[in-house]
Amino acid sequence: xxxxxxxxxxxxxxxxxVDQGRFCVARCTCGWRGPARRARSLARTDAEGHxxxxx
Length: 55
Description:
Elements: E1 15-20, E2 23-28, H1 40-53
């Protein structure tokens, strides 16, 4: 059992992009899912923004 003095590590967000037909979607291990994008670069930007925000 952890002591109260020990810091709890933050949840690490691992994002990926998944192609779905003509669209690309960013997803995270925390369950977050970005909007469908036609450009992979926009889906990657969504994923990076999510990972940096820590939400």
